[in-house]
Specification:
heterodimer; A: 378 residues; alpha/beta; Rossmann fold; 2 domains; five-stranded parallel beta sheet; four-stranded parallel beta sheet; 17% strand; elongated; B: 291 residues; mainly alpha; ABC transporter involved in vitamin B12 uptake, BtuC; 74% helix
Chain lengths: 378, 291
């Protein structure tokens, strides 16, 4: 009798294991090389790390996860080709990827036609506005960054600001969004300057801003070395009014590059950057601290919010699959749309049929550079 | 002079000196081989990135910089020996395309050997801005401008006073005649690549505190340096400097008085006009016909 039970249990286990062998396939196309490598590189590392960790913990729905990742090199055309391959050959269950807005938008028609849940890791608001049935995204939008900055300016009694931005896609998009929402906050943009992608000196633009009448604060939209050069030139010219940067430079690297000149600069960013200094009462603290420690222990480099977006994307997909109880594409999509109160590295995610990003302004923290480190602005 | 104008001029001179340093490297190789070496920007990158990584390994700045310059010179030698020389029978256009390939290879290698992050070098003599006529100048800019001036002087001496320098000029004027006079064209090519690589690396180190450095910093700097070299007159040392400074000033004055969105366009339009009127560039009088 005993023996029979054991045998039956054993058989059942073997059967389940055989059934469980087909892994859940997570597809990804990321800019691991090329100009957007600083986005794609931490994203890829994060996906690898957490697919490993999820598998070590027994996988999802009793099945292992398998990551199928391609390097799209920041090229929208390549992104399209790889997305096609993910859909048609690799037959993935969900796509988490698209480091840049350009790559994401190139792939949107494909996933919409194929009916495959797609969680993008790119910033621009056009990805989820208007809402596309199968497309979701994890990072904050540039419009939210503008809102957050203008709210902070208003609180400091600032009503006239100058804008300086780079010429990249992110910079231009954020510049447009900021110009669009400035009026809502009662902020006048009194100067609007730009600089080129490889520019090595922005003192000319900043001199113009310095001499523009009534400037009370300056906002720099951009990422890469540009904002660090702006910050240094800003200090060199002795411009006294507050300088705001965008979430595009939300990494330690910015402080290292700009050095002392970064002191006092404010920017909106996800809580991840100040993980350890969050109050213990903060519900987001355990999530960001655990991700930060796992990432830094494994890769020996500072965590960035970009990798965090990939973490959120993967975890949202897993959450949706668990909730749907299957990897059925339509069910997973519906479950994604119903995610409420999910705590990610970017903030609390409350998806809905109208909102496929699910973040609000509370997801951004206003940070200030103090003594070479990020500090929370109360 | 208004403080505003003074600031634009100082900014223009700083940027212009950077372009001039890169342009000088183009000129040397062009002199020796009539090849426009599009990997010149990569030498600039190697100088900056190698210094950053050696500093990180604990070396003081001066030895790190020297080692980085030596490394770049070695890479320049290897490039000349194994990529350019084997194809010496090919047309100049083919050689130029080889250098483009080399630049892509060097960028790729740099992103693997080092990383894809942006790095900064500490300024050589502090960051306290120097006030001039109501405008300010970073001390590092003086380093860039000063060293650019020294290099121009040094190169003038090299090309006019030393046998090797004269040999390079001779090859540039007439390769066959130079060869018949017993000048080793092979050696001239090697020396010129090593020299311009070293020069590029030196530029990369000097400007890294201002512009930062990363695996792909050479792309834009290379392009601007190339534009400066053309503007000043390809192959002319003083021309490279004049071209660089002119380009830098045009950009900064364009950004200041017209529109920062069109500053590159303004600079390039002026450049086109100059080249239409003076096809040899500002100081490129020596437009020797190659028959």
């Amino acid at each position: 009798m005993k023996l029979q039970t054991w045998l039956a249990a054993g058989l059942l286990a073997v059967a389940t294991a055989a059934h469980a062998q087909a892994p859940i396939r997570i597809g990804a196309f990321l800019s691991v090389t090329g100009p957007a490598a600083f986005l794609g590189d931490p994203e890829q590392k994060t996906l690898e790390l957490y697919v490993e960790r999820l598998n070590a913990a027994g996988g999802v729905l009793g099945r292992k996860l398998e990551l199928v990742a391609y390097d799209s090199g920041g090229d929208a055309e390549k992104a399209r080709t790889f997305a096609k391959r993910l859909i048609e050959q690799d037959k993935v269950d969900v796509i988490v990827g698209g480091s840049t807005t350009g790559e994401t938008m190139a792939v949107v028609p494909l996933v919409e036609a194929a009916g495959l849940p797609f969680i993008s890791l790119a910033g621009a608001v056009v990805i989820v506005e208007p809402v596309k049935k199968w497309v979701f995204k994890t990072p904050h939008t540039d419009r939210m960054a503008c809102d957050k900055i203008f709210v902070d300016m208003k609180a400091r009694g600032i009503s006239k600001a100058a804008l300086i931005s780079g010429s990249g896609g992110f910079d231009k998009s954020m510049r447009g969004q900021c110009l669009g929402v400035a009026k809502n906050h009662g902020i006048d943009i009194v100067a609007d300057e730009t600089y080129g992608a490889g520019d090595t000196d922005m003192t000319a633009q900043l001199t113009k801003i310095k001499n523009a009448a009534g400037v009370q604060a300056v906002l720099n939209a951009g990422f890469g070395q540009g904002p660090a050069i702006v910050t240094k030139n800003y200090k060199q010219l002795g411009i006294g009014v507050p300088l705001y940067q965008s979430h595009g430079v939300a990494s330690k690297q910015y402080i290292q590059l700009a050095g002392d000149a970064a002191e006092g600069v404010r920017l909106p960013a996800a809580a991840l950057l100040v993980a350890e200094s969050l109050p213990d009462s903060d519900a987001q603290k355990p999530v960001v601290v655990s991700y930060k420690q796992a990432y830094e222990a494994r890769f020996k480099q500072d965590v960035s919010t970009f990798g965090g977006h990939a973490y959120d994307g993967l975890m949202l997909a897993v959450e949706a699959m668990k909730k749907a109880g299957s990897t059925d594409k339509a069910k997973v999509r519906d479950a994604l749309e119903q995610v409420r109160g999910y705590m990610g590295t970017a903030g609390v995610v409350n998806m809905s049929a109208q909102d496929h990003m699910g973040l609000d302004l509370s997801a951004f923290r206003m940070l200030e550079v103090r003594k070479g480190d990020w500090a929370l602005v109360k | 002079m208004s403080a505003e104008l003074a600031q634009y001029l100082l900014s223009g001179l700083t940027v212009g000196a950077i372009y001039a340093l890169v342009a000088l490297g183009f000129s040397i190789i062009y002199n020796a081989s009539h090849v426009i070496n599009f990997a010149q920007g990569e030498f600039v990158m190697i100088g900056g990135m190698a210094t950053v990584s050696l500093l990180g390994a604990g070396l003081p700045l001066a030895p790190a910089a020297l080692a980085a310059v030596a490394l770049a010179a070695l890479i320049g030698l290897l490039l000349a020996r194994f990529a350019v020389q084997p194809a010496r029978g090919a047309s100049v256009v083919t050689l130029i395309i080889i250098t483009i390939g080399a630049s892509i290879l060097l960028r790729g290698l740099a992103s693997l050997v080092w990383d894809k992050r942006i790095h900064a070098l500490p300024a050589f003599s502090g960051e306290a801005p120097i006030a001039v006529a109501g405008a300010t100048l970073a001390p590092q800019s003086l380093w860039v401008i000063g060293v650019a001036a020294l290099i121009v002087g040094g190169l003038w001496g090299f090309f006019n006073r030393t046998l090797t320098g004269k040999a390079i000029l001779a090859v540039s004027h007439n390769r066959l005649a130079a060869q018949l006079m017993g000048i080793s064209v092979r050696r001239v090519l090697l020396v010129s690549f090593a020299l311009s690589a070293a020069l590029g690396a030196l530029a990369g180190i000097l400007i890294a505190p201002i512009t930062f450095t990363s695996w792909d910093v050479g792309v834009m700097l290379g392009l601007k340096g190339f534009a400066a070299a053309i503007l000043g007159g390809m192959g002319s040392g003083p021309g490279a400097v004049v071209g660089g400074l002119t380009l830098g000033l045009l950009e900064s004055l364009g950004a200041g008085y017209v529109s920062s969105a069109y500053k590159d366009a303004i600079a390039f339009i002026v450049m086109l006009v100059v080249l239409m009127l003076m096809p040899g560039g500002l100081l490129g009088g020596r437009a020797a016909e190659r028959v």
